[in-house]
Amino acid sequence: MDSNHFEHSAAASHDTAQLMEQILYEVKRVVVGQDRFLERVMVAILAQGHLLVEGVPGLAKTLTIKTLAQTINGQFKRIQFTPDLVPADLVGTRIYNQKTGEFTTSLGPVFTNLLLADEINRAPAKVQSALLEVMQERQVTIAGETHKVPEPFLVMATQNPIETEGTYPLPEAQVDRFMMKVLVDYPSEEE
Predict the structure, then answer these.
(1) What is the tally of structural domains in the chain?
(2) Residue 190 covered by a domain
(3) Is 89 within a domain?
(4) What is the pLDDT of residue 11?
(5) Is 67 within 8 Å of 171 (Cβ atoms)?
(6) What pTM value is reported for the model?
(7) Which CATH number does the domain housing residue 73 bear?
(8) DSSP per residue, 41-88
């Protein structure tokens, strides 16, 4: 490789670092005291990975990802996982229109840039599996038709470590689909 390639690569890295600093600065104006968590979210976006986040309610998890989406002009959606969810609630389905006699595709909430899968362990395995498939493949097939999710695409799934009644633990094979697990706690007094 020639030296021009390395110079171009170094310049691109510098530009990316500056952009990340600017994004962090903007989000930290809204989210106070969760610097480590925010940095992990940024790493996941850059590496095209996903996060499994564990923490009690009230630690700015939703605010962080929602503010990040606004900062990067991305789309944010939130799914509250419950025992009665079915895979179509996440990925979408085909809907029959009686007036036209045709089916149309209704895309689900996974078609977004930043997705908060809140309390993923409250949904049954088949729903968890549907989400994890989208995370891996970055696309959904509905009635034989493939639909790609937009880029960037980040899933931040949360679990509450205290309230475990009525939950479905994620199997190890599913946990492996996440780039990292982040434990979010209360900020220190200095923060």
Answers:
(1) 1
(2) no
(3) yes
(4) 65
(5) no
(6) 0.86
(7) 3.40.50.300
(8) HHHHHHTT--EEEE--TTSSHHHHHHHHHHHTT--EEEEE--TT--HH
